[in-house]
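Project standup — Tuesday

K.O.: blocked on the structure for the chain from last sprint. Re-posting the sequence here as requested.
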Amino acid sequence: MLDTVDSTNAHAARLAPSCPTWIVAAEQTGGRGRRGRPWISLRGNFYATLALQPHDPPETVALRSFVAALALRDACVSLTGVPQAFALKWPNDVLLNGGKLAGILLESTGSGGRITQVSIGVGVNLIAAPDAAAVEPGAVPPVSLLAETRCRVTPEAFLSVLAPAFARWEAILITEGFSPLRQAWLQSAARLGEVIQARIGPQTHTGTFETMDATGALVLATPAGRLSIPAADVFF
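H.V.: unblocked you, prediction finished:
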């Protein structure tokens, strides 16, 4: 475990390990989330990256975000014993009692249409959450595992549960495809059947969250018709 690093994803890219490797840090000085947003990294929380060298096409590599989300939920349920408290927010957040507990960031490198390495970054608010004023207006407010469940978990203990959970879902993806992951994800999906907003740059689509399709895309029923969205920021 590293004491301080700029970001675990950046460190994974520099190392480029030849086998699956978890990189964990006590503190990040330049942590980041989706679209380059800063990730506030308070000591005591969980900051880790799993570095992989996949042999899959890019569209399959991208499905690792759902592997990570399911593994995160399994780890949290195992540690707390309150499965009903956790939900999955498309595309890559884990919610606890309606607040954001964890986020996932996939970054990859490659050439010639082939991905040679993927870094799966995971941040979990184990003992403290950033101030709600620090997050984007309209975003889900952050929460911590400790405040919401009174369960105090160290980063090392969390990794000991997360790593095997990820390995289980990864094996299912490889041997059975995305279908069982999709079904499991939908069973824990936040706001399924409700009206949500999906923002793509300056454009906002409002509609009923119908499902997630076989490619991992968000499917909305909008006044203009059924819309499949491969990437967006979702707001409730």
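K.O.: great, moving the ticket to review. Residues 81 and 149 are 10 Å apart (CA to CA). The chain has a mean pLDDT of 92.
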